[in-house]
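hey so i finally got around to running the thing on that chain from the lab meeting. sorry it took forever, my laptop kept dying and i had to restart like 3 times. anyway pasting the input first so we r on the same page abt which one it is
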Amino acid sequence: MSDTITYAVPGIHCEHCATSIREEVTGVPGVEGVAVDLGAKTVKVSGEGVPDELVRAAIREAGYEVA
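ok and heres what got predicted. didnt touch it at all, straight out
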């Protein structure tokens, strides 16, 4: 069964932001899907046993802070 974790990322505001985050987070082991909601400023990550700290690090690597 796949888990879904939602992260608040207040700095995202455009498709370029979303693409950068998707590219970084997709590389995290166990990640099966990444959905960025620009309106809600959230990133939903799905997968099995996805390490929270690695997802947060990937979002930071893309240039954004997790609230």
